[in-house]
Amino acid sequence: MSIKFLVRLLLASAISLLSISCASQKPMYYWGDYSDSLYDCKKKPGAETLAKHKAALEKIIEESTKREMRIPPGVCAELGYVYAAQNNSKKAIELFNMEKQTYPESSLLMDRLISQTEKRTNYGVSSGNEIDKKAVENEKYSGKGAQ
Fold first, then answer.
1. pTM of the model
2. CATH architecture of 27-146
3. Measured between alpha carbons, how far is 72 from 93 in angstroms, rounded to an integer?
4. Do residues 75 and 37 touch, judged by C-beta distance below 8 A?
5. Mean pLDDT, the chain cut into blocks of 10 residues (147 residues total)
């Protein structure tokens, strides 16, 4: 075998290997407009940007399901938190359970969020009771709600 032949063989092998390794892979998650909507929500907080972010989260879940992809980590939990903040405890708990089912390693946190959401529902927060809403806010800022 000549050196010229070995160099060509090595070059051809390298090109083949490079082209195989650069082949596009199907993405693991569908993130949709998550980054932009979250940025807008943080940059200009308000009802309008929150509604857009909520819609983006719902679309991510919908598209992920439609494309038969796993829902990205934290999306169900974040949307559940938005629903909990809007006093829709039933939907929040449903989403927390979905996060827990999709990512079992989140069980401890999701169980805690479910428990807190149920407590707030039982104390009348989701029914619009102003005294209980104030208690929840105080709990949030005192750090008791994070334990």
1. 0.68
2. Alpha Horseshoe (1.25)
3. 18
4. no
5. 77 76 78 94 93 96 95 96 94 96 95 94 59 49 46
